[in-house]
């Protein structure tokens, strides 16, 4: 990976989560992204240690559901769901 694209401390991913989860956002956001980004966002919601995202097994083409509560807090409604995929 080129050095200018590295985010070793997760600063850019944390900033992305802050932007996406800002209070006052309305509607539904669907993000199609890589597993490590999903893991990082789940880690942010859970308030887990920085390296925790590496321990989350996120399957290819899976769905992760993060929801904002009325209080403004976020919750994890589902992680790495592959129920929509058919067996090949």
N-end to C-end Cα span: 32 Å
What does the main sheet amount to? 2 strands, antiparallel
Shape: globular
Strand order of the largest sheet: 1-2
Strand coverage percent: 15-25%
Could you describe the 3D structure shown?
This protein has 2 helices and 2 strands. The protein is an alpha+beta fold and 88 residues long. The chain has a domain at 32-88. It has a two-stranded antiparallel sheet.
Task: Lay out the secondary structure.
Blueprint (H helix, E strand, L loop, with lengths): L10 H10 L14 H12 L16 E6 L5 E8 L7
Antiparallel strand pairs: 1-2
Summarize the structure.
By secondary structure, the protein is α+β, with helices and mostly antiparallel strands.
Descriptors:
single chain, 88 residues, alpha+beta, two-stranded antiparallel sheet, 16% strand, globular
């Amino acid at each position: 990976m080129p050095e200018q694209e590295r985010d070793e401390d997760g600063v850019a991913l944390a900033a992305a989560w802050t932007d996406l989860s800002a209070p006052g956002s309305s509607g539904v956001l669907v993000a199609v992204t890589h597993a490590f980004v999903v893991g990082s966002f789940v880690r942010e919601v859970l308030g887990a240690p920085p390296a925790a995202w590496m321990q989350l097994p996120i399957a290819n083409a899976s769905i992760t559901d993060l929801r904002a509560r009325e209080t403004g807090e976020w919750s994890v409604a589902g992680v790495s769901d592959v129920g929509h995929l058919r067996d090949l």
